[in-house]
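Dissemination and training. As part of the outreach component of the grant, students in the summer workshop were shown how a complex can be specified as a set of sequence lines and then modelled as a single object. The example used during the hands-on session is reproduced here so that future cohorts can follow it. Participants entered these lines:
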Amino acid sequence: MKKRLLMQIGLVLLIIIVSVFLYRIGKGFQIIVENKNNALDGITFEVQGPVRVIFDDKDKLELKENSADLALLIGYGEHKIKVEVLDAEGNAIKSIEKTFKLSGKEGDLLSIPALLSGSERYIFKRE
Amino acid sequence: MKKREAAFNLKRFLMANIVPIIFILLSVFAIPISQFSASYLIQEMLIRLARNSFLVLSLLIPIIAGMGLNFGMVLGAMAGQIGLILISDWKVIGLPGMALAAIISTPLAIALGWMCGAILNRAKGREMVTSYILGFFVNGLYQLVVLYFFGYLIPIRSPELVLSRGYGIRNAVNLLGIRNCLDYCIPLTIHGIRIPLGTFIVTAIFSFFIIWFRRTKLGQDMRAVGQDMEVARSAGIPVERTRLISILISTVLAAYGQIIFLQNIGTLNTYNSHEQAGMFAIAALLVGGASVAKATLPNVFVGVILFHLMFVVSPMAGKYLIGQAQLGEYFRVFVSYGVVALALVIYEWRRARERAYARRMFRGEA
Amino acid sequence: MDRIKKFIADIGWPRAIIALFLFALFVLAPFVNVRIDSSISDTLVRFGMNGVLVLAMVPMVQSGCGLNFGLPLGIIAGLLGATISLELNAVGFLGFFTAIAISIPFAVVFGFGYGQLLNRVKGGEMMIATYVGFSSVAFMCIMWLLLPFRNPTMVWGYAGKGLRTTISVQEYWGGVLNNFLSLRVGEFFFVPTGTILFFALMCLLLWMFFRTKTGTAMSAVGVNPEFARAAGIHIDKMRTLSVILSTLLGAIGIIVYEQSFGFIQLYMGPFYMAFPSVAAILLGGASINRANLTHVIIGTLLFQGILTMTPSVINSMLQTDMSEVIRIIVSNGMILYALTRGIKVKSR
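and obtained this result:
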């Protein structure tokens, strides 16, 4: 009798753990990807041209100068971002890869110019 | 005596399978008229097979246990939908989202299935009508919760799910996040026809589950209860509990089935999607040759194909035949209900005849 | 205290609760700006409108055929009568009775076939009744599109073929009963005397029928078929007769409904129409195999009262429209309660 009860409690705990796991790997976040001039602490990061942004080797985004777009990232963990600056024909002249974490809220802002300049802060979390 | 039985064979076969035969004839007649291409029909049928089979599978176990057609499967569908509303609110995407929806809806489906089973146990001999009305009743409760409590007593984080008045879920919930996630999770295309392999695999797994289940003690108990409640009771089988468990399993499977159904469609019609779920699943099962007392796996798949074939083909056939597509639509509705009526009549007729026969035997005649 | 408990147990808890609920609504009404006189008036109108349809349940319950979920069949007969009477341009009282007269042969034929079917499926009548009802409504949908009606107020404009979904009867015989000898006090209080008189007439006729030899035979079949057979009563004939009666009352009932409502609803309109009537008679105290006139009157009054009062009062209170949901829960809850109550005296 006791063994059965223990097994049932164990099963319920297992399900809860699995649920939390599913939630963390499945939750989607929308972030704003911006290719505009960004002023921070007195330094202005300038746009370096049209870019192609690839998230997690999957989703591609193309941004012209001074434009922004939305991207959907899935999962709570780390995400990979690869930014390619394009020339007039669409070939990549410069490429940077980084990994980052999200704040866990909707609507973080990712600034391409800040990232390209090598700044540590290129994700601006929503308050 | 033996000679009569042999001659009966063809007649018996026709009688037992009259419904699928009628449908095959109808389809043979209507398909050329509708002018649909073969590849279109094959693709449609594959999609519908993947989409609906699971829901129809959920009907098998109550039939084995003698509970008849479980119209209460809409309760499971509603539980599944609540799970989907929640994961849409939390924005959990893809297969994890679907799995989470299934996990969330399970306790709800168990609770509803338990209630349904308990109520049906108090209405022995009238299970089908009772489960039918119960479906409507719980639909009322579902609407109460989803239209009034969600967003008010139950917090909803995503404003796009909520009606403009501030509480209550919108009529249509976008399920793009999980759309087709199970279907095409393993991509496979043959001759330009996309095959929903993921769903087929899950459905196959559950088909094997049902086959295995029939052989377990619980499955055998249900069979016994289905054949004769009193005999089963005197054999020591807990009749009420067994019946309740059969409905419980059916409700939970219906919840999963509805989630699978909706992930294929991609949109949840909050107040309508579940209503037709029971209707169409039952009609499909009956079209496949099942009866109220007996249903097998082939009935499920043959039924889904035949029923949905007619479903897809009749509006166009109606349009080319008589000039009004509307007619084809109504014809489709008529056939859906008519086939259930026919199956019910055949079943009850046989049952009444068997009872009369047993009565005559008891009296020492015949 | 015990006597009260026994009283409530006899009525049944759900009924007691609903009666109290209705009473509470009436008490609340003036406090939420709902006029009592217009509420009573609305309830009376709806009572008259639905009464005969609920009455249609009685014959079949008494003969043991269960609740007539196949009422749509009778309704269709009535719809045919109504539409044909409109096609013939019949107006006023004459029009009303023409509609009834035309629907009678249809109702008898439908009822006969339906009764024969039910006789072969004893034990499963209710489920089959439901689906026969549904199938016939769906079938008639096809028919409404194809039947050769010509009256321009009834058919679709440009095509000239196929009936409209909703047809107004205002210019024909809408309101003839409602307005007959009606009482109007002020702007808000209106008693549809004619309709109520007609309903009373139908009740009287049915009551007289059940006192005849055939009527008592019919009730006997419902109580105990074996004894009835031993007494020389032809069970199947009685059952078929009860089905015909029920279908007939359904046909008359829908015509009464239409003259009050002002519209004929075709296509999928009649689809779910059996359920409110079933709920109403159960609410009035009937069971699956016993129903009498008191049940009809009390049940219809309570049910229509709830349907009228709940929207107005709760909407004013909560600023929201919960009426539909409450109606679903109450009516289906009632039916569920009756289905799970168990059968009284019945030998298999």
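Strands of chain B lie at 172-174, 189-190, 193-194, 267-269. Students were then asked to discuss how this feature might be tested experimentally.
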